[in-house]
Amino acid sequence: NSGAVIFDLDGIVVDTTGLQFLAWRKIANDFGFDFSKDQNEGLKGLSREDCLKQILAWGNIKLSVKDFHKWMDIKNSYYLNYIYEMDASAILPGTLELMDVLQEENIPFALGSASKSGKIVLKQLGIYSRFDAVVDGNDVKNGKPDPEIFLLAANRLGFAPSACVVFEDAVAGVQAANRAGMISIGVGNKGLQKEADFTFNNLTEVTREFLQNFLLFQS
Ligand code: BG6
Ligand code: MG
Fold first, then answer.
1. Distance of CA 108 to the CA centre of its chain
2. DSSP string of 116-159?
3. What are the tens digits of pLDDT across the range 142-186?
4. Ligand 1 pocket, 76 CB below 6 A?
5. How far apart are CA 144 and CA 200, in angstroms?
6. Which residues have a catalytic role annotated?
7. The dihedral of CA 204, 205, 209, 214: what is its sign?
8. Which ligand 1 atom is the nearest neighbour of the CA of 76?
9. CA 24 to ligand 1 centroid distance, Å
C-alpha cells in the first residue's frame, strides 16, 4: 500500500482531555484564578510549555525561568496521578476497531502527540506495541501547530507527508497536519469543520471504505 495513518493521542486514542483540563485547572487554581472549558479548547494540542505560557497570560502572572519549570513539573505530577489510575476502558470508542482495520489492510500507523506522557499513556493502556512508530512531546522541539511532530512521525514510518492521514481533535493539531501537507481529519469537534479536510463525530464513523479510498490508492 502507499499510505499511512497518524493518530493524535489526547481526545483521539484516549479519553484524557478532561484529565489534562483538570490538571491545568489545578495550576490556575493554585495561582488563585480559574478558566473555562471554552478557554481550554485553545490549550488542546499545545505543548506543556505553551499551555503554561497561555495560562499565565490569562492570569496576568509572570514567573522566573526556574519557577516556570517548577510549575511545569507540578502540572505533570497532577496529571500523572490521574493517568496511573486509568485503564483500557479509557480508550475511546472506535479506536481499537480502527487499528484492527488498519492492520488487516496493512496500513501502518503512528502516534503523533504533543504530550510528554504519550509513551507512558500507551503503555498504561497496553497498546504501545501496536504502533509502528511513536512520536511524543519528548521527541520534538516545536509543539503543534508546528508540523514537526507529524513530519517526524511520517519520517519514522517511512512515508511522504502527502501519503499520511492525520486524526486530530484540536484546532492546533489540524493546523499542524495541514502545514505538514497531510490529509487532516477532525474528530469530535464541530469547530474543526472549517480547517480539516474531513470531519467525523468519533472514530466509530470511520469506515474501511473511507480508509481504502485515501490510503490504498494514493499516488
Ligand atoms: C496535548 C494535550 O496532547 O498535550 C494538551 O492536548 C496538553 O492538553 C499537552 O497540555 C501537553 O501534555 P503533557 O502531558 O506533556 O503535559
Ligand atoms: Mg488531542
1. 18
2. TTHHHHHHHHT-GGG-SEEE-TTS-SS-TTSTHHHHHHHHHHT-
3. 999 999 999 999 999 999 999 999 999 999 999 999 999 999 999
4. yes
5. 21
6. 8, 10
7. negative
8. 16
9. 10
Dist. CA 127 → ligand 1 center (Å) = 19
**What is the complex's ipTM, to 2 decimals?**
0.98
189 lines ligand 1 (CB under 6 A): no
How far apart, in Å, are the Cα atoms of 10 and each of 18, 28, 38, 58, 95? 9, 20, 17, 23, 12
Q: Determine whether 210 is exposed, middle or buried from the number of CB atoms within 10 Å of its CB (0-12, 13-18, 19+).
A: middle
Please name the amino acid found at residue 25: R
Amino acid type, 90 = A
Cα of 42 to ligand 2 centre, how many Å?
11
Q: Residue type for 80, please? A: L
The type of residue at 153 is A
